[in-house]
Design a protein that fits this description.
The complex is a heterodimer of chains A (about 160) and B (about 575). Chain A has about 160 residues and is α+β, with helices and mostly antiparallel strands. Chain A has helices at about 15-25, 55-65, 100-105, 130-140, and strands at about 1-10, 30-35, 45-50, 70-75, 80-90, 110-115, 120-125, 145-150, 150-155. In chain A, about 30% of the residues lie in helices and about 40% in strands. In chain A, strands 5, 6, 7, 8 and 9 form a five-stranded antiparallel β-sheet that branches. Chain A has a four-stranded antiparallel β-sheet with strand order 2-3-1-4, with helices on one face. In chain B, about 40% of the residues lie in helices and about 15% in strands. Chain B contains 23 helices and 19 strands. In chain B, helix 7 (about 135-150) links the parallel strand 6 (about 125-130) and strand 7 (about 155-160). Chain B is globular. Chain B starts with a strand and ends in an 8-residue tail after the last helix. The model of chain B has no long low-confidence stretch (mean pLDDT about 95). Classes of the chains: A alpha+beta (about 160), B alpha/beta (about 575). The interface between A and B is medium-sized, with 21 and 18 residues.
Chain lengths: ~160, ~575
């Protein structure tokens, strides 16, 4: 089962290395990872998507907690939360498909951030399902390349899953 | 008044109560070594390899409970410490390792003797630091000692660039707070009372005690628990000495080379009280057939050890000593059971198993059996020596045939299984205990891995005794090849090289040899009398195997024993 884990870590040199080393050293997998500063410049938030059975997820959470630079571990999958990722998709559509590409971008509330004679680059933000959907829809139009960020997540305020 | 980084470093060590450092000099660490030259309070013990320095600091730490301190140079000096650091990490031993580093502006430039030791040691240290500013040195030292010694202990490495130790700053000794590091020491009260109830209800309870008992200093509390509830105790390799080995309730060691009765007890028990041990594969054998009838109480300071390998019914995260203190109080006051009556049948059954297959080997008149050497060492020292071992058959026979009644007398590389550990560890223990008898039980393969430390022992006048169980083979591997690879001894025959007696003498130590069983006791007695480093070359039977043995992947009640035909073999060739 996939789990999104949010970590509050000390913003120090080597922390990212120690955490990714923990995952690789113990054979856990990192499906995606994103990290950035928080309102406290000494603390960063890291969001990791990983997968495993209950026993493995429990071990992952405990091993992360054990690390000296990890301040808090929150398994977002257990909570009501908001998730987002962003993707930049460079499409090279045929002349007759160009209008459809622009329509899709609008439907998905994306923005064209670059255009050339042959390509459009679209920026889309959303949850995982939305990102998967737009990529599927644009594939037949001719995707040249795309770049995805890792997932970020934040708990919904005041509402917890029982 | 401004001090250099090197002076701040030395002052910080003194404030942490350090008296001994194990190390080896080099270019980038010369300024610190210069300060140590005439220092009256800090003594550096110069080893002959950085690996020896780390193992010596490790032996010092295990035998005293204090952190071991290491000082080495950059590049190869630092990389040579990695095996020793990994050894300490696997066994949770507090070490603080200081390595020199090239100046900060050269880091990342492939400079001379530069190594990314912080990167290399990251997976095997509890934490590590690169000191980038001279103002941070004292705080880093203070934090490092705190991290190494608290919670589940472990090695910490600090990298000291040359320009940082040459820069100047005011000395400060700040209070440290690490907001993200808060080990749990007090066990959950409700969980502890649940444990007490389970213990009271069980008919066939068994305590498995590991290294955590010794690290926590909880041997008194463990003895109390066992005696109040009349529960038998088995000690893992790392737990030997945590409970008296000669106590009637002691079952010896469990697992792959454990005693028959310890393994049978685990498989028949209805309650396992696991204290400061981590259910390593050497102890459990086949996991899904481990302790099939038992509920499990698991007391450990490290939450990641709990439910990692086996299902646990009552998990208690906390410091072993504190948890047992509370548990014992509850058991003494609240449960008024007639412990003796309840346990009678179980202890009787265990005695039957003890008679069925006691720890044994076949003594021979002509050829020295390695177990005989260990037995003699135990007898002559009255169980009161500090014993270190190397790894393999020598290690297993020492664990099986030497009974430890007190903690911190047993130094062995359990988790990593590092050959070459025992001799430098014995040196470290001798430095810490100058008036005790310290003996390394070694194999002919292992002793050659850090043989250069003979110089360290002799020059520092350390009367360490090394008992080499010389079977001319890489014994444990040869045993596996005999049992599972059709006696194809691939690259395990070490030949009769070197002449250990002459080798010891070349270093200025004393060399003795025994080739017949009746020579063993006189050699040991003479060695123990001489106040010098002594190598004893015991030429032992090459085909002896460690029994019982649970083959890898088998459940622990599937044990192999010495074949009857082996016992009856009359012609045993001593030398091969």
């Amino acid at each position: 089962m996939r789990h999104t884990i949010s970590l509050l870590v000390e913003n120090k040199f080597g922390v990212l290395s120690r955490i990714s080393g923990l995952f690789s050293g113990r054979g856990y997998n990192i499906e995606s990872l994103s990290v950035g500063e928080t309102i406290d410049p000494l603390i960063s938030t890291m969001t990791i998507v990983t997968s495993g059975d209950d026993k493995i997820i429990e071990q992952i959470n405990k091993q992360l907690n054990k690390l000296i630079d990890v301040v808090k571990v929150i398994d977002m999958t257990e909570l009501d939360h908001v998730e987002r990722e962003m993707v930049l998709i460079k499409v090279a559509p045929k002349q007759e498909d160009k209008a459809e590409v622009l329509r899709l971008a609008e439907i998905f509330r994306g923005r064209i951030v670059d255009s050339s004679k042959t390509t459009y680059t679209i920026e889309i933000t959303g949850d995982e399902k939305k990102i998967e959907a737009i990529i599927e829809l644009l594939k037949p139009m001719g995707i040249k390349e795309f770049v995805r960020t890792g997932k970020i997540a934040i708990a919904r305020q005041g509402i917890k899953k029982s | 008044m401004k001090m250099t980084g090197a002076e701040i470093f030395i002052e910080s060590l003194k404030r942490e109560g350090v008296k001994h450092i194990f190390g080896y000099p080099g270019g980038v660490i010369l300024n610190i070594f210069d300060l140590l030259y005439e220092d009256k309070d800090l003594q550096l013990i110069l080893t002959r390899h950085e690996q020896g320095a780390v193992h010596a600091a490790d032996g010092y730490a295990r035998s005293t409970g204090k952190p071991g301190v290491v000082l080495v140079t950059s590049g190869p000096g630092a990389t040579n410490t990695v095996t020793g650091i990994a050894t300490a990490s696997m066994d949770s031993i507090p070490l603080v390792v200081f390595s020199g580093q090239v100046p900060t502006m050269l880091i990342g430039n492939d400079a001379f003797q530069e190594a990314d030791i912080v990167g290399i040691s990251r997976p095997c240290t509890k934490y590590n630091y690169l000191a980038k500013d001279v103002k941070d040195i004292s705080r880093i030292v203070r934090e490092a000692f705190h991290i190494a010694m608290t919670g589940r202990p472990g090695p910490v490495l600090i990298d000291l660039p040359k320009d940082v130790t040459s820069s100047k700053a005011e000395f400060t000794w700040p209070e440290i707070t690490i907001r993200s590091y808060n080990p749990t020491y007090e066990g959950n009260k409700w969980m502890i009372s649940q444990a007490a109830q389970l213990i009271a209800k069980s008919k066939k309870a068994l305590i498995i005690a590991g290294g955590g008992v010794i690290l926590s200093g909880a041997h008194k509390e463990l003895k109390e628990l066992a005696e109040i509830t009349n529960t038998p105790v088995t000690m893992t390799l790392m737990g030997l000495g945590g409970f008296p080995g000669t106590h009637p309730l002691s079952l010896g060691m469990p697992g792959m080379h454990g005693t028959y009765y310890a393994n049978k007890s685990i498989q028949e028990a209805d309650l396992l009280i696991a204290i400061g041990m981590r259910f390593d594969d050497r102890v459990t054998g086949k996991l899904d057939e481990f302790a099939p009838h038992a509920k499990i109480i698991h007391i450990d300071i490290d939450p990641t050890s709990i439910k990692k390998n086996v299902r646990v019914d009552v998990p208690i995260v906390g410091d072993v000593k504190r948890v047992l203190t509370v548990l014992n109080r509850i058991l003494k006051e609240d449960t008024k059971e007639q412990w003796d009556e309840v346990r009678k049948a179980w202890l009787r059954q265990i005695d039957v198993w003890r008679q069925e297959r006691p720890m044994s080997y076949t003594y021979d008149e002509e050829v020295i059996k390695p177990q005989f050497v260990v037995e003699k060492i135990f007898e002559l020292t009255r169980g009161d020596a500090i014993i270190s071992t190397e790894v393999g058959q020598n290690q297993m026979w020492a664990a099986q045939f030497y009974k430890f009644d007190k903690p911190r007398m047993w130094l062995t590389s359990g988790g990593l299984g590092t050959m070459g550990y025992g001799f430098p560890a014995a040196i470290g223990a001798q430095i810490a205990h100058p008036n005790k008898l310290v003996i390394d039980i070694a194999g002919d393969g292992s002793i050659q891995m850090n043989i250069q430390e003979l110089a360290t022992a002799v020059i520092n006048k350390l009367p360490v005794k090394v008992a080499i169980l010389n079977n001319r083979y890489l014994g444990m591997v040869r045993q596996w090849q005999e049992l599972f690879f059709n006696e194809r001894y691939s690259y395990t025959h070490l030949e009769v090289v070197p002449d250990f007696v002459k080798l010891a003498e070349a270093y200025g130590a004393v060399g003795l040899r025994a080739t017949k069983p009746n020579e063993v006791e006189p050699v040991l007695k003479e060695a123990f009398k001489i106040k010098k480093t002594v190598f004893m070359d015991f030429v032992v039977y090459w085909k002896e195997k460690v029994y019982p043995m649970v083959p890898a992947g088998a459940p622990i009640d599937h044990m192999l024993f010495e074949e009857k035909k082996e016992k009856e073999a009359k012609k045993l060739r001593a030398v091969k």
